Amino acid sequence: MSGGARLENANPLIFQRTGERLLTASEEDEDVADPIDDREIFDILLTPNYSYDPEHPLSLEELNVVEQVRVKVNDEESTVSVEFTPTIPHCSMATLIGLSVKVKLLRSLPARFKIDVHITPGTHVSEDAVNKQLADKERVAAALENSQLLEVVNQCLSTRPA
Amino acid sequence: MAADSIRLLDLVGDFVTGQVDSKATDVANGCVADFRLSLTSSESQTRGRGVQLLSQVLEECYTSLSEREVEVLVAFYENRLKDHYAITPHVLHGLKALAKCTVLPKGSAVSILKSLFQDVHVQSHGLANEFDCIPNHAELKGLGPDFVFGFVQAVDGERDPRNLLLAFQIARNIIHRGYNLSQFTEELFEVTSCYFPIDFTPVCRILTSFPSFLLPLIIEKLDSDMQNAKVDSLQTLAACASVYGHKELSDFLPSLWSSIRREVFQTASESVESAGLSALRALTSCLCRSVLTSNSEDSLHVFLDLVLKDCQHHLCEPDLKLVWPSAKLLQAASGASYRASLIVTAVVLPTLLEQYSSRTQCAQRRTLLEVVQGFIQPTASSWPAEGEETVLQPFRKSLCSVVFSALAESNASLQITAAKVLTKLGQQPGVLAQPDVEMAVDHLSRLVLEEHDAKVSLAVAECAGSLSRLHPAPFASRMIPKLKQEIFSGSSKPNVSYRCIMALASVSTQPSLVRESAPVLLQMLAAAHTGMSCCRIFSVEEVVSVCCSLQRIADQTPNTEEMGHFFHDVVIPRLLTLSLHAALQGENESGHSSPLIEEAVLSAIVPVINTACAALQTELATTMAAQAVYLFLDGDVSFLPENDCPSKIQLLRSQSWTQSQLVCLLMACVCSLPHSVDIPEFDRLLGQLEELSCTSTHPFSYTSAAKCFAGLINKRAAGQTLDGVLEKTLRRISVTLDNQSSAQRIQAFNLLVWMTKALLLRYHPLSAVLTDKVFSLMSDCLLASQAADCFELLMSDSPDVLNRSCHADVRIMYRQRFFAENSGKIVQGFNCAEQGKKSVYLKALSHIVNNLPRQVQLTELPSLLPVLLEALSCPDQVVQLSTLCCLQPALLDPPPALSTQLEALFSRLLPLTASPSMKVRIASLRCVHALSQLPEHMVLPFRAQVLRALASPLDDKKRLVRKEAVLARGEWWVFGNTLTATTM
């Protein structure tokens, strides 16, 4: 991020974070199976850069890019659908955010899942183009062959300090 | 050359063997004369060797040279500088020696330097000592600008970092000693500043001397893209603001501010942000120091107006991101001094308070309140001096009303923030007036009774605790009676009464409050015991939480004689009476049986008595010991209130478990007293305890008796009497243990373990015998597994006895000593044991290693690694788990020995991620996660294997396991991506 250059959206609206998931007794019980649910997927998406510091850095949740209501999972049918909302309709990072979300899910979910990532309808100027790119398996694979792009995506996903 | 060498040897020999030092000068002069041949030889190499020798001689004898000799030598050396470049190093060496002479003739230093600058091309020599030649004589000042110019030329283009460091040192001397820089000021700055902000701290120190050049440089560097450059510039700015005055800064303030603001507003890095904030704080405090003149405007006001203008409006947009950086900037400026905080709060607080009342959303109000919280806490430098009133004075009323209205909201996070603000307000004397505190206490009491959210309750308890320290009276008169009424109202739900019990402990921070709160809790215990109170029956859990609260009170009250008396005279006798009554009633009472015979309750009473007794002064402690001992030996109940017990009760010899288990209270009373206290009837007491611990069939009774025995012998003075008692007991234990069919082997083993622990802690010589006894039991067919587990007990701290807070005799590093003496035996036992019994040794080892301090673990790990790896493949889940727990922290900072064992480690670790035990799966995934942090070249070969193996835990049936798997697999994906762009 260049110091001299202006950010695209320097003063974004921030939203409140949901608290940490509360541990239930059944989760600690060896014999009970816990199905993969919406909240679990949501937590996976927030794990990178997730911070309890109220100010910095902002997580995808605080920017309202990802909301729990827009995450849908069906464990039995092995499908996941995530809608994300760019902070501004002409956000140039939309594809990168979508790609990061998709890669994160590919790496964190069992192989049986079919993963669908797309922009919340009506929130971005080039919604269709971005959705098409994200849905195209070969384009996603090709994008990840690009080592520079892969590095940026990995940076978005890593929990290590850069 | 050979002939020269011989003469040289002669001369040097003369010098070395010559007893008179002054001969050295003759030698030196002689050298120059005698070596005319070699020094004037046409071969540059020969000349070089000649000069080298001469320089070495001078190095040895420069102290004894006369002024005249030095002059000659200086002239010679200056001349040599013009010679072949190969000779220069030796010439410099000699000059360095000459420069150290105290008798350096006037003008020599100047002339040496002139020749140096003139003839030596610094860049062409990679010499570490070039700059050493520049002597720091006052005389050089006279050389003035010429010297500086020469120096600048010498430094310019220098590449050797050692020389650079030296150059920076000289530059600092040049500046600090006030050399005349005149027209070369800028050149000197340029030649140094080009090294900024490479990590040379000396540079920063030099640069601070040039404000007019430095400040533009900082502004320029802040515009750069490099994170380090930004942080360094901001830190330099903070450093020089503490040296500069207003005069140096004034021209640059607006641009400095806009750079700082931009960085703090835009950055995602915490280091840039905090550097920016400290720079702003330093600038502000610099302006605060500046002296006002009558005709100029107040520079602090002007600067803060600038800051306020740029930040204040962001505070009115609590939804947007910039509210936070703006608040932090303003808080940094306000924290610089009292005057700055006066100016800033006068503008900011009214805005924030007005915003609070105009906004209605809870999230916005919470943000505003959190910002307010940052402004009301004065820093060390902005704390009001004596006679000055707090900056919050004009806002007291409105702040209180905002806080109270927030406490009355139903939003949890708003309430929590309000409680924090209230805490901060209460900590500053003079902010809260009496009616405000009373109002606050009422609000807090209401929240204790009505608020169900656990986080709010915690915040309320903290706030009440902090306020009660400064304002005990309203808590005693308003809160405690309300809580008491609720507890005994009969209608309260269990979780409400839990909160009341907790709150009673939280506010008991002053003796006056303890005198109010502790009786309420004791009354609850009495009601629970009789079960006859006007209200409902108290559950065991409630009674336990009452005891926890009593323990907290005992822990946090100031250790005064007054409080000692209170616990000794009121609390402890009351607890003993209630337990005794319950025990005498026994369990066969029809209908209600007292909760005070429950093990859980007694175990909760023990820490109360422990903590109280440990704090008693000697005199009270001695009475306490006598009272407890005679109560248990002879049934003397005279010191107890309501002593209507039957006489002749013998608690330690009682057949009823309800009575014999009271021995845990005896332990609490006598084992935590200070060392100096003499226990009466010591031998009789030990005898009865031994008997009880060996013969009782009630586990809680015999364990407590063994603990009490251990606690007593740990503190007893060493000597023959003690040894006699110990040997007698040991004989009894051995006889019982050797008799395989005895019914009391478990009891004997239990006493053995506690005795071992007591002696181990104080390095008693008998402890080695006892330890060996325990080791021998590891091959016992019945006790093997208990013997392995007892190492956990031996190595960890017991909460209720034999720990430092009980004044036990605990030598430092007893664990290391135990490990050093015994690890070999375990490894040996492991190697000798037959296959089925190996796990016992692994379990013992993992207990010991797990309790070692981390530093020791790390140093011991290389030697233990093979055994620990073995332990991972041991089928016992307890062993697996404890080994994993021991490995995981070590993997975060791995010893070099690990690198050769990685293959074996992964092959054992990865199968454990599919273990039937959830805890083992989680622990092994954590280890795999930790391994991803090793250097890439070590773990890259395993990447594909790990990623494959971690695919199945992603689909684990337990969510907690999946969570660890996601974290670990994520990390294993991320590293090494540039080397291998693996597809999914």
TrEMBL record, chain A:
Q: What does this protein do?
A: Component of the cytosolic iron-sulfur protein assembly (CIA) complex, a multiprotein complex that mediates the incorporation of iron-sulfur cluster into extramitochondrial Fe/S proteins. As a CIA complex component and in collaboration with CIAO1 and MMS19, binds to and facilitates the assembly of most cytosolic-nuclear Fe/S proteins. As part of the mitotic spindle-associated MMXD complex it plays a role in chromosome segregation, probably by facilitating iron-sulfur cluster assembly into ERCC2/XPD.
The protein's name: Cytosolic iron-sulfur assembly component 2B
A cellular component term from Gene Ontology for this protein is: cytosolic [4Fe-4S] assembly targeting complex
Give the keywords, sorted. Chromosome partition
Keyword Repeat on this protein? no
Which GO biological process entries does UniProt record here? chromosome segregation; protein maturation
The MIP18 family-like domain covers which part of the protein? 52-117
Species of origin: Electrophorus electricus
Family statement: Belongs to the MIP18 family.
Subunit description: Component of the CIA complex. Component of the MMXD complex, which includes CIAO1, ERCC2, CIAO2B, MMS19 and SLC25A5. Interacts with CIAO1, ERCC2 and MMS19; the interactions are direct. Interacts with KIF4A; the interaction facilitates the transfer of Fe-S clusters to KIF4A to ensure proper localization of KIF4A to the mitotic machinery. Interacts with CCDC117; the interaction is direct.
Signal peptide from the UniProt entry: none
UniProtKB/TrEMBL annotation, chain B:
**First-listed, main subcellular location of the protein, grouped into a coarse class:** cytoplasm
Its keywords, alphabetically, are: Cytoplasm, Cytoskeleton, DNA damage, DNA repair, Nucleus, Repeat
Q: Is Nucleus among the key words of this record?
A: yes
**What InterPro entries does the database record attribute to this sequence?**
ARM-like (IPR011989), ARM-type_fold (IPR016024), MMS19 (IPR039920), MMS19_C (IPR024687), MMS19_N (IPR029240)
Recorded GO cellular component terms are: cytosolic [4Fe-4S] assembly targeting complex; MMXD complex; nucleus
The GO biological-process annotations, alphabetized, read as: DNA repair; iron-sulfur cluster assembly; protein maturation
Q: Where is the MMS19 N-terminal domain positioned along the sequence?
A: 37-202, 209-266
The yes or no answer to whether the keyword Glycoprotein is present is no
Cell compartment(s), UniProt = Cytoplasm, Cytoskeleton, Spindle; Nucleus
**Where does the source fall among the domains of life?**
Eukaryota
- Ranges for domain MMS19 C-terminal: 502-931
What family classification does the UniProt entry report for this protein? Belongs to the MET18/MMS19 family.
Subunit record text? Component of the CIA complex.
Q: What does this protein do?
A: Key component of the cytosolic iron-sulfur protein assembly (CIA) complex, a multiprotein complex that mediates the incorporation of iron-sulfur cluster into apoproteins specifically involved in DNA metabolism and genomic integrity. In the CIA complex, MMS19 acts as an adapter between early-acting CIA components and a subset of cellular target iron-sulfur proteins.
Q: Which PANTHER family match?
A: DNA REPAIR/TRANSCRIPTION PROTEIN MET18/MMS19, MMS19 NUCLEOTIDE EXCISION REPAIR PROTEIN HOMOLOG
Question: What is the protein name given in its UniProt record?
Answer: MMS19 nucleotide excision repair protein
Designated gene of the protein: MMS19
